[in-house]
# Entry
Amino acid sequence: MPLLTTLPAPGTRVRVTQQIPHTDRVWTRTVEGTIVRCQQAMTGSWFAHAKDDRLWLDRMELRLDDGEIVVLNLDQYTVVEPVNGGSSATG
# Structure
């Protein structure tokens, strides 16, 4: 699982590739945008012996080129790559 401390800083343009493995195939989705923020967020799911007895997920918010905000749950199948062109001034 990606560690939030190793991800690029907010304002960085990134390409995020996520995969969902299945028995006979893999679904792959790639999205490109500017990082708005990365944080651990609590879900509504209960998980014994976790912080506050809740399941916490690493989440990244991206601003796409058309202004849409997407929230990605990061897991062991997520690859985050900075895109050439560096940071974006979009706030």
